[in-house]
């Protein structure tokens, strides 16, 4: 529950601060970047300090090298968090974190189904909803920060341009569409 609270509070404070003082156009983008950075700094850190043994226990037994998997996923979470700080890396970090969220979900589900006496937020349904909130945040950020692909205005030159056949047919070329 702490990671969700972190995401919501940091994103909310950043969004409010932007609205009250900075008035930047990209308020939602900045809020999601800050919230996701804080979220994945928190979750990435606990892969090494505090909850490492619990995270290793969460890895399904059919997967080898549980400790290595926890280490790698922690490094990827920390790298994704740091990627939120560099504008050029944000779409890639968001895409990587989205992929990571999907990849680790089965371990979360197995753990939620196999552990007795979990707090309500760690049971399968709430955990799934929380994971979907994280995924929605990362994918929204990818959408907000990905370069837009637009058609250029005016005639298209280059290898994809249609050849001018007016010389061969004696007729003027068709008008260009805009």
Automatic annotation (TrEMBL):
Entry's transmembrane regions: 6-23, 30-51, 63-85, 92-112, 124-142
Acetylation recorded as keyword: no
Domain of life of the native organism: Bacteria
Region (Disordered) residue spans: 148-178
Keywords: Membrane, Transmembrane, Transmembrane helix
Keyword Lipid metabolism: no
PANTHER family, alphabetized: DOXX FAMILY MEMBRANE PROTEIN (PTHR36974:SF1), MEMBRANE PROTEIN-RELATED (PTHR36974)
Name assigned to this protein: DoxX family protein
